[in-house]
Amino acid sequence: MSELTVRPMHAAVMIGRCVRLSRRNIDALLTSLLLPVILMLLFVYLFGGAIETGSAYVTYVVPGVLLLCAGFGAAGTAVSVTTDLTNGMIERLRTMDVGATSILAGHVVASVARNAVSTVLVLGVAVAIGFRPAVAPLRWLAAAGVLLLFLLAVSWLSAAFGLLARTPEAANGYTFLVMFLPYPSSAFVPVETMPSWLRGFAEHQPVTPVIESLRGLLLDTPVGTAPTQAAAWCLGLLALAMLLSALLFPRRVA
């Protein structure tokens, strides 16, 4: 069977397995769920009064925190993939004719599910402390679509990092890039306030258009071309991650 062939039954079993593993790993689950909330409260109540954004800081910062959720969840994906490689689980699955795509899809979908729960939790706490999003259903659906596309992209990218790493500790380190990207972006401060050398990077990296899309859609403000740029970045990263995964998997299990 081709490594790229997806068998729905195999994929469903792998998804169920990864979701159960996530549920049982209480420490990692609580970290991925609660850390974004703690960081949001930290930014809002410790730094929010000193940062001028033209609106209540909680209103400005929520979209960036939602992307932090994706970064924390992605770290768990990379570690899980590497753990399966190092403890022999993937070799056992391959003896049962389970393909690479089905195995990795389980980790990716479990990551998206974790991030969905974390997103709902962050939004609930944000509303409790003053965040007031738009109520138009179509804008909510559009924002959910942008966020889902970003989650898929970073989850597959993290799965590729997991295939690249030789140990779970290294896999966790590789995902630092994903977790770091929201900081030099428009997530926490307007890019106009940054030094010119940093502003250029912040304006032309994948996270900023995703954040601006979410901010505009959730707050019912103009979004311009941000959704198009966000979709292009996410689809490009998703294609790259899937290609890397297809190339790396046979080499790791050979």
From TrEMBL:
Keywords: Antibiotic resistance, Cell membrane, Membrane, Transmembrane, Transmembrane helix, Transport. Signal peptide: none annotated. Residues 27-252 form the ABC transmembrane type-2 domain. GO terms for molecular function: ABC-type transporter activity. One of its GO terms (biological process) is response to antibiotic. It is a multi-pass membrane protein. The chain crosses the membrane at residues 29-51, 57-82, 103-129, 141-164, 171-191, 230-249. It is found in: Cell membrane; Membrane. GO terms for cellular component: ATP-binding cassette (ABC) transporter complex. It comes from the Bacteria. Belongs to the ABC-2 integral membrane protein family. This is Transport permease protein.
